[in-house]
């Protein structure tokens, strides 16, 4: 389940309570009048089934509380309550199939930011992958896959395309377009230094057959990218974050970037170009799979149905004798 926390101006609290009461997927509703300080108002809290979250949030946003108060939504680790079980049974669909759009957009928005931390992680991942190529170490390549943060912007781009949030799409594209060249440039400088020191040689890279899979583009490159993208998006929308580790290990986006740099500095342009192709295949495949997963997810009640239900609830709340 999810926990909802709303700060509401006193004059809008009754309408908010009516909206919550109108949805059978909402329970554990509490009210603390005058408890909120900034912004000032009443504090209303409730637990709701994931399947009910989209319509409930649409109802609350329609009241204008995003501007006059505040809305917070987060997961609940453990709930022991017959009322909660009844709310989950009453909500249509299955909790694991429900996409909470506001929550998903907030998570991917944060992960798609071009920040110093994002640049640092991607640069470290590229450096690790170049070392893995130089030392013929598949274990180091796997480490680079896990460290790479590129799935965040790719997932955000998928969400942006489905929801038509072009600002989020632009933010994600900027993160990818800026971060990858930066990380590869730093890796190139480091690789040139290691080559001068004799740590990396052309013969060593050409004989590194344990990591040939990085630049060898084939039909399974796209298949793996599609499967990894689908698994990653499913893990995000179902709040099963443990599956993301498997996704990171499956795709060779960052290792391909590291391999391309090492191959280019050694003059192996054919392998460098193949590695660049591997990067493109993985990026496109992950985004396409993410979009397909979001499109194919079971839909909950539509926005018009939600607004109509809210109007009925408000009408009952304002009727004489209530």
Describe the structure in brief.
The protein is α+β, with helices and mostly antiparallel strands. The chain has helices at residues 10-22, 50-62, 65-68, 82-90, 101-111, 116-135, 138-147, 151-163, 166-196, 202-206, 219-237, 243-250, 253-265, 269-296, 303-318; strands at residues 2-8, 26-37, 40-48, 70-75.
Mean pLDDT across every amino acid position: 86
Quickly count the domains.
Answer: 2
Discrete helix count: 15
Q: Helix- and strand-based class? A: alpha+beta
Instruction: Report the principal-axis shape.
Output: elongated
Strand content: 5-15%
The counted number of beta strands is 4
Kindly report the spatial arrangement of strands forming the biggest sheet. Answer: 2-3-1-4
Radius of gyration: 25 Å
Keywords: Membrane, Transmembrane, Transmembrane helix
Transmembrane segments: 114-135, 141-162, 174-194, 214-237, 244-266, 272-296
Organism: Nocardia rhizosphaerae
Protein name: DUF389 domain-containing protein
Q: Can you give a write-up of this model?
A:
The chain crosses the membrane at residues 114-135, 141-162, 174-194, 214-237, 244-266, 272-296. It holds the Pfam family DUF389. The protein has 322 residues and is α+β, with helices and mostly antiparallel strands. It folds into two domains: 2-94 and 301-318, 2-Layer Sandwich (Alpha-Beta Plaits), CATH 3.30.70; 103-296. It has 15 helices and four strands. Strand 2 (26-37) and strand 3 form a beta hairpin. Helix 6 (116-135) packs across helix 13, helix 9 crosses helix 13 and helix 11 runs antiparallel to helix 12 (243-250). The relative contact order is 0.13.
């Amino acid at each position: 389940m999810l926990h909802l926390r709303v700060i509401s101006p006193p004059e809008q609290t009754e309408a908010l309570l009516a909206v919550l009461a109108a949805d059978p997927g909402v329970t554990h509703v509490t009210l603390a009048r005058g408890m909120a300080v900034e912004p000032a108002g009443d504090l209303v809290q409730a637990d709701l089934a994931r399947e009910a979250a989209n319509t409930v949030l649409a109802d609350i946003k329609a009241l204008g509380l995003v501007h006059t108060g505040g809305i917070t939504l987060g997961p609940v680790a453990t709930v022991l309550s017959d009322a909660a079980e009844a709310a989950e049974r009453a909500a249509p669909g299955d909790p694991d199939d429900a996409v909470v759009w506001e929550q998903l957009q907030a998570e991917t928005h944060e992960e798609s930011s071009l920040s110093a931390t994002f640049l640092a992680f991607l640069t470290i991942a590229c450096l690790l992958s170049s070392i893995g190529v130089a030392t013929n170490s598949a274990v180091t390549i796997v480490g680079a896959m896990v460290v790479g943060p590129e799935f965040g912007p790719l997932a955000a781009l998928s969400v942006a395309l489905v929801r038509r949030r072009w600002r989020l799409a632009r933010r994600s594209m900027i993160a990818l377009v800026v971060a990858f060249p930066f990380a590869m440039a730093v890796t190139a400088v480091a690789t040139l230094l290691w080559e001068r020191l004799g740590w990396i040689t052309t013969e060593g890279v050409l004989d590194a057959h344990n990591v040939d899979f990085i630049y060898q583009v084939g039909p399974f490159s796209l298949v793996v990218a599609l499967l990894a993208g689908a698994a990653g998006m499913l893990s995000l929308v179902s709040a099963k974050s443990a599956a993301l580790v498997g996704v990171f290990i499956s795709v060779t986006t960052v290792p391909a970037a590291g391999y391309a740099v090492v191959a280019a500095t050694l003059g192996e342009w054919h392998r460098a170009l193949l590695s660049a192709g591997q990067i493109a295949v993985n990026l496109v495949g992950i985004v396409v799979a993410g979009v397909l997963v979001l499109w194919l997810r079971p839909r909950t009640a539509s926005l018009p149905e939600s607004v109509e239900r809210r109007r009925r609830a408000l009408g009952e709340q304002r009727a004489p004798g209530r």
